[in-house]
Request: fold
Amino acid sequence: MPEQKKKTKSEQRKMTVKKLIHIATEEFASKGYAGASTETIVQKAGLTRGALYHHFKNKAGLFSAVFEAAQEEIGRRVEKSTEKAEDPWERLIFGCRAFLKASSDPTLQQIVVIDGPAVLKWETVRQIDLTLEQGSLSSLKECIKELREQKIIQALPVEALAHLLSGAMDEAAVWIAQSDDSQLSLAQAQKTLEVLLSSLKIKGK
Reply:
């Protein structure tokens, strides 16, 4: 009986945390980190401020959880896009294209691209990405490694290439976010990246 009660409390906690993250995502996305109000979040969630701080140390802690959930969503979108790929090369192209598109989604863009690095600092952002099962950098490394093994791309160091491509896409995502015409910038970034990626292919592959 006590074990069943404990399990129920655990489930309730997970539901509360999920609810808070969902509501906080909307608040942070629409108002930005600086403008977001924890009071508004707890009111919409039907909870007390004490309950919020029971699950999250402070506003930054809540944002960190929201950021991680947003990163996971980007990873899911990238993975979904690569399911249509017929080979590792298409998987790289589709994945990079999907990453830029997902990062341009207004909700994910505000949280991951605009506020994330400023609020959490770059080291934390990178660490979160590395610990996620579907983290973009880890997925990129796996794809590059497979392309190398199949001799589709040049035998460049996996770590170096992955970080260079990841950095280029992160910077492109910031540029798109600051652009007056985000759709045009997204299309230009995707096309330009594909041209750059094509230079990695071994001739005849």
In short: The radius of gyration is 20 Å. Residues 2-35 form the longest helix (34 residues).
